Amino acid sequence: MPVDDERMQSLQALRSQFSQALKDFASSSSSFRILRSIPGTHAPSSAPVCTLFVLDSSFNPPSKAHSSLVKSALSSSTLTRRSSSESSDSLTSHAPQRVLFLLATVNADKKPKPADFEDRLVMMTLMAEDLRGRLSNQDSSQKSQSQQDHPPATIPVIDIGITKEPYFTDKATSIAQSNIYTPSSPNPEDDVEQVHITGFDTLTRIFTSRYYPNSDPPLAALEPFLSRHRIHATIRVESSSANDDDLEDEFGTVEKQQGYLDRLAKGGLEGEGLKREWVDQVQLAVDESGEADGVSSTSARECVQGGKIGELGQYVCEGVKEWIVERGLYRD
């Protein structure tokens, strides 16, 4: 359904709010800030958090592939908690979770291309609203089809946040040090566990030494992160997420992608500082839904540039599509 005029005016006002927030953030000493929260169910935004799922991206634009990554991570987490709770009286499926869409504004003093940060934040909000609706519909469908007496799933709060940090390890530290999220653990020394959601190609970059030139050995820089947090990497049945042809050739099948992690677990990068036990903090999940096949931010931009607006809905949700058309984004 097209976005009506009243809704569009509301989004234009939201864009103006984001513009001022970005200016305030750029001149502040803060390295992480939440600009907006999409409410969840069963828990207020101020509730303590057990697990924070972080999707860090340029969101240029937010695509259905982004939503698919989040749904994969949340689904795997729900299955794990339900399995571990079979012998427990507690309803661990109600463990407090939260999702963070994180946009890095490292070059906030330069005009971002091809879409302004304000526009990306509006589109992130629209995608978060769409994802919340899809998670709610998915839960209703599963309950109607299942004969088992499972408690209702909790739809998490989805935050829209920004950071000045360029590297994901520093982003994780800035989130933890902000004290925005209150841990649900009674132990004062415990942090909120962060689960960083990635595609497989991003996972290989995380374990690439050249990104950590200030550490010796370089991958030792990952210890503060992997000792506290986890990585959820989604691989596809067809590795269409890889943008690099060499990466496509090397990891073009599910077996090859799983084999990569197996090699790390056997000490494949110990010489560069990656400890074998850290690999236990990485979860690989196969996306067999097909929702993200051939979908990326690049494909969405190319669709607009090619004048194929009618096909844009294949790559982005309806709200994001309407905003792209309204603002004339990605035409050049």
Automatic annotation (TrEMBL):
Comp. bias intervals (Low complexity): 136-148
Ranges where the record places region Disordered: 134-155
Source species, domain of life: Eukaryota
Any single Gene Ontology cellular-component annotation: nucleus
One of the record's GO molecular function terms: nicotinamide-nucleotide adenylyltransferase activity
UniProt name for this protein: Nicotinamide-nucleotide adenylyltransferase
Native organism: Exophiala bonariae
